[in-house]
Amino acid sequence: MGLAASQARFLGLTARKSNIEYEGQQVNQQRTALAEEVNALYNSLASLSLPVAPDATQYYESNYSFSLNNTTDSDGDYLVKSYYRNDDGTYYLNTTRTYNKNVAEGTVVDNSTITKTTDPDDATKTIYTYKPVGSESPITLTAVTDSSSMISIINSTYSNEISSDDTLYYYQDTEGNNQVYYFSKAQMDAGSKISHYTLGNRAVTESKIIEKATVKFDANNRISKITVGNQTADVDTTRVYDSDGYDAALRDYTMSKDEYNRKVQELNARTESLQQEDKILEMRLDQIGTEQNELKTEMEAVKAVLKDNIENTFKTFA
Predict the structure, then answer these.
(1) Which of 20, 60, 121, 156 has the highest Cβ tally under 10 A?
(2) Residue 277 and residue 32: Cα distance in Å, rounded?
(3) pLDDT confidence tier of residue 217, bands split at 50, 70 and 90
(4) What gap in Å lies between CA 99 and CA 114, rounded to an integer?
(5) What pLDDT score was predicted for residue 266?
(6) Using CA atoms, how far apart are residues 198 and 180, in angstroms rounded to an integer?
């Protein structure tokens, strides 16, 4: 190989070596970027909150109940739904109260069962008769002398359904349950809505707020005594399992766990993909290293040829 050819070959190998080195730098930069991305994925994985299954023991709550007797408008059995402490140290109690109360029960009847006729002895008076379903003959209704107390009971149940100056008529079913049935004169005269009402002492449950109660707690921080006014009652505590609350929490946990597993799978899949890319780049880097060694060997050989050519040339002209 002549001097010029050797020089051209050496320059070509030098350029190739520079390109290979530049490509190696680019591969290393790509591997660094991949490593940073993998590290970010690991950080994302580590930051995921692992769902925790609900603890069934946390879904038991204490129900407090107590009874009051010989009080004004407060007799009955109480169930404490919630409570909180007032600034003055007393307690606000949100309760339900069950007690016996005179209540009305209204049943709509067909207005055709009511008949109105003029009293033959007094033309200013109307005789009302009621024929129950299945009855052979109508029953004459009797006016209640003082209807105000019964109307009050009906209106407390049915939100002022009857005027306070109305008159009630009644009959007693002596052949059946001995129940007394009451009718409104205004309803019978209007004919648009006819009901008969039965009155009775029945157990009712109503919400009741106790704004200032004195509460004592036992060693387990459970309510043991409640004082309302001047009466103190012992408190019964029952532990109730909130199955609906636990089931809802379990459903939330299952959904959270599925979402967590999905994110973990996505992160692992992305990490594996990046690792595969890194392996390909690593193989390319090994190839570049091998090629660099081959270029280095060839450049050394070309250098030797150049040296011989230079020495021979100078000897020729010496």
Answers:
(1) 20
(2) 12
(3) very high
(4) 36
(5) 92
(6) 6
Structure tokens at 50: 């692992």
Distance CA 160, CA 167 (A): 14
Alpha-helical (H) ranges within the chain are 3-47, 148-158, 185-190, 243-317
Cα gap 48→220, rounded to integer Å: 37
How far out from the chain centre does Cα 169 lie?
52
The per-residue b/e assignment along 141-150, b for 16 or more CB within 10 angstroms, e otherwise, is beebeebeeb
SS (H, E, C) 77-135: EEEEEEEEECCCCCEEEEEEEEEEEEEEEEEECCHHHEEEEEECCEEEEEEEEECCCCC
**pLDDT at residue 284 in the model:** 86
238: DSSP letter: E
